[in-house]
């Protein structure tokens, strides 16, 4: 499709009549304003600008987001966007470099973290980046299509309900780690304090809990999927 913008900058309905588009460009009655997706702008007034209702559907996701603009019987535009997942790593790296720089170049520096305050509409940086990505993509699509309605699909899953369909009330606060000091103690109890490598119990050695997938590679601290026990480590 060739997307069309009116002389005053408002988006019009796209066209598939490539011969007419070439005719307009050849006679300088239109100009190319974008190569991808191919968009032209008319250089003359069209008088009555009639457009059809266009609905933009947004499928939000953690790593990938989908966008689709369509009328009642035809799809006009489809796209897939890759979401950024490196924000926590970049923030951690920035914090470490700032700390190292201050330790190198400043003997004493008064604390400033008490002066920093969050406003009422504060969002975590990773969430704010995703929100900005969706807003930018919606604004980009609306620049060459007359979007009249936006439908955003949000999927909210109850993980506890999936595991236990009968859960309700305070059952959400009484998970599998209830009564344990931390995740490590739960994993040790779950595995019977046995080493996953050799299958023996600890005898004068320390049992360690390791991640199957490192946090820096996208792993989590969930005991059911991301943690494994145990490997022996000699006490020195």
In words, what does this structure look like?
This protein has 236 residues and is α/β, with parallel strands linked by helices. The protein folds into two domains: 3-84 and 124-153, Nucleotidyltransferase, domain 5; 179-234, no CATH class. The chain has helices at residues 18-26, 87-105, 125-142, 159-163, 183-190, and strands spanning 3-5, 30-34, 39-42, 54-59, 64-70, 75-82, 147-153, 205-211, 227-234. A hairpin with a 4-residue loop joins β4 and β5. The N and C termini lie far apart (71 Å). Residues 232-236 have low confidence and may be disordered.
Short recap of the structure:
The protein has 236 residues and is of the alpha/beta class.
Q: Characteristics of this structure?
A:
single chain, 236 residues, alpha/beta, Nucleotidyltransferase, domain 5, elongated, disordered C terminus
Describe the protein's topology:
Layout: E1 3-5, H1 18-26, E2 30-34, E3 39-42, E4 54-59, E5 64-70, E6 75-82, H2 87-105, H3 125-142, E7 147-153, H4 159-163, H5 183-190, E8 205-211, E9 227-234
Parallel strand pairs: 1-3, 4-7
Antiparallel strand pairs: 2-3, 4-5, 5-6, 8-9
